[in-house]
Amino acid sequence: MLSHMTEQELQQTRREKWRLNGKPIRTIEEARAFVESVGLCLMYPQRPTVLVPTFIGATIGGEDRLPTWQHAYSDSRAGEATGMMVRLLRERTAFEANSFDENNGLLVAASAFPYFYALVGERNPKLAPKAGSRSPYSALACDAFELIVRDGPISKQKMQEVLGGSISLAALDKALGELWSKLRITRVDYNASQGSYWDVLYRWAPEAVKEGVGLSVPEALSALLSKYLDCVIAAEQSELESFFGNFVPRSRVKEAVNALLAAREFSFVHVGSKTMIQMTPAQVVSSEMEASVPSRRRAVKQ
Question: Which pLDDT score, from 0 to 100, does residue 1 have?
């Protein structure tokens, strides 16, 4: 089943969904609703471009001259967006991951986060990481984890003091990044004097972590692919593999997409000269189900 959409229609629908249509987020309620609607968004635009909305774009209401994270400090518009983002983290309506760049968080809606955790997080989150030649964790990351377990939520500045003044902030940032990339820890607050505050994720969001640990990777990937396609409206298979290849092997993404196409949850759509994948429109699913009812009834009578 193939339907049609112009490139202009696709871009216009995305602009409305991503709030780039001159209707910026003004309140924390609108910020919550936006993150819940899109499921996943980057804080700032990424280079090379990642096919996902940005929180800064939604708070500005457009996509012209959006600051990247490198220039956010000098852009007055970024302060308001950061303030809202921190509020979302504090109230746990959004969670932050460093899947693309440690300085440019990927915000994940609370409803989507258990699925994201199932792809990225540790299956035994309370087990302390150990350093070693085959471990993704350095000795400093292991020390930082123990400190956060003991004293968290704790600021990076305080961590540096406790771990020893000879440890550079760059080394501590690298260690925190190792823990964050596996969702061992998460940023839970921020203020200008102390910087970011960190806590272990299993303590900060125990229900979400427990749910994520209980989900299989295929189940979680299918759910996130569906949420992502709802957000971007339509995407080429290569774009789906590129985005989700940051979390799982591309071969698993391909398998999941093919299974969802076979189940008719996804369908193909022509966008200009491209063949893309979309969520199968609800009216198509319902009409197919209605059409199959008489045949099922006949089978029962026979």
Answer: 52
